[in-house]
Amino acid sequence: MTVRSDPTSQGGRLVELGGLVIRYGAIAAVQGVDLAIDAGEAVAIVGPNGAGKTSLLSAIAGVARPSAGSIRIAGKPLAGIALSDVVREGVALVPEGRNIFGSLTVMENLRLGTTPRRDASVPADIDRVFADFPILGERRDQPAGQLSGGEQQMLAIARAMLSRPRLLMLDEPSLGLAPNIVDKVYDILRQIRGQGVSLLLVEQNAARAFALADRACVMSRGVFTLTGTPAEIERHEAFDAAYFGVAMAKAGTA
């Protein structure tokens, strides 16, 4: 049940997943997933809770170790290497819940994003963050836990970008945010994409993700059940069942 669509090439293949399997004991959260992302491309993954979306991002980021399959960025194998080395290869993850350090200041949180770097342009990049996110500049010495949810999301994105990623992954970036704040977050993501950074989004808010993405995948029970352009997927007769989950779809027709 796949909608076929050729990816838009914007500078060559950046990410390749081949037969990726992620297990937690006897449970296979991800079951043989293949995915390719080109440089500068935005890909959205949507689907019901428990589909394996977060596990997939965690494996690419080096947080979860795959049981089988391969992960490559620009042709270099990533599976099994240290988390810090994954970051140095250009992969950054903004996790669900943001994972900022509430007792640390905004500036201290940002500096954590520069930990893998060894170059002299870190201060200039932090100044650029404050130019792009003026509210963070105004609150640089304030504990991050005192920021609003939207400000914390901006901080998490800014912190990730300070590692200078080639691939920025975001897990539920609109979760718990007011619609006007979601607008701001997605405006920021469009700007990031305009810089040539590839994006991989996991979202419950399919409409938001589809408006940004070149391609999309619907994930259910550890596999991709639909792939294609957002327009192709939204038109597909199986989209509602795939997106909401088979059980929910059946319940709605009972």
From TrEMBL:
It comes from the Bacteria. Keywords: Amino-acid transport, ATP-binding, Nucleotide-binding, Transport. Residues 15-246 form the ABC transporter domain. The keyword ATP-binding applies. Pfam families: ABC_tran. SUPFAM superfamilies: P-loop containing nucleoside triphosphate hydrolases. GO terms for molecular function: ATP binding. Belongs to the ABC transporter superfamily. This is ABC transporter ATP-binding protein. It comes from Mesorhizobium vachelliae.
